[in-house]
Amino acid sequence: MTVPETEAGFRTPVWGGVLIGGKSSRMGRSKHLIEYQGVTWLELTVGKLRKKVDHVVISGGGEIPGSLTGIPVVPDVQGLKGPLAGVLALLRWKPDVSWLVTACDLPDLEAEALDWLLAMRQPETRAILPDLQANGQLEPLLAYYDTRCRGYLEEIAASGGMRLSTLAGKPGVITPQPPIHLHCSWRNVNDPDEMGRAFVIGVARVGRNE
Q1: Does 200 have pLDDT greater than 80?
Q2: 119-148 burial: b if 16+ Cβ within 10 Å, else e
Q3: pLDDT tens, 137-196?
Q4: Is pLDDT of 44 > 90?
Q5: Is residue 82 exposed (0-12), middle (13-18) or buried (19+ Cβ within 10 Å)?
Q6: CA 20 to 30 Å from 54, out of 34, 97, 111, 121?
Q7: 204: Cβ contacts below 8 Å, ≥ 6 apart
Q8: HEC-encoded secondary structure of 171-183
Q9: In the 8-state DSSP scheme, what is residue 77?
Q10: Which are the contacts of 152, defined by CB distance < 8 A and separation ≥ 6?
Q11: Least confident span in 11-15, 98-102, 109-113
């Protein structure tokens, strides 16, 4: 029996992709190598993804901590800039799986946010780009990209576009609003001041959970 196209995509394995290699000009150093209690943000992110997906892959370029040397590293698509280069690289490298993708600079990423993204999938879903405030400001750097989303990304790349949010409005692309208590998982850190605030918030959250 032939499996319907919508169901076939929904049944594909889900792998995790961590995007690294941004210029980090405001931070002044590679964000994925920033350490929290002796562990890099990249190692922390990989550890969180590993609990939710079949395999984890690093997308981009840069130094990789020794503890992660066994993880595949996929270079960005040449000729493209920004996160599109990393996400499309993953879909080209392993086109028969779907991807739970996250940036490396989300220090408050929670396992529950990953669970929420996976729970939002339906057989017809091709991408999940959260809209935290339901105002059209999408969050493509902690998002889900189905294997069938590759055609859309190839079209964006071919047209000279760079923004993953261009996926909005295409068939099968949904933009749900996460629960408010999970919004912190999408908060990224771009400069030392933000990193300081992230540390304070992180300590406070740990204290509440003890």
Answers
A1: no
A2: eebeebbbbbbbbbeeeeebbbbbbbbbbb
A3: 999 999 999 999 999 999 999 999 999 999 999 999 999 999 999 999 999 886 555 554
A4: yes
A5: middle
A6: 34
A7: none
A8: CCEECCCCCHHHH
A9: P
A10: 126, 127, 167, 170, 173
A11: 11-15
Enter the tokens of residue 72. Answer: 């595949």
Token pair, residue 174, equals: 């949904």
Tokens of 200: 């304070």
Single-letter amino acid, residue 17: G
Query: What values do phi and psi take at 123, rounded to 5?
Result: -55, -30
Q: Is the dihedral of CA 134, 135, 139, 140 positive or negative?
A: positive
Token pair for residue 38? 């002796």
Among the listed residues 49, 40, 94, 45, the one whose alpha carbon sits nearest the alpha carbon of residue 72 = 94
SS3 state at 139: coil
Strand partners, 56: 16
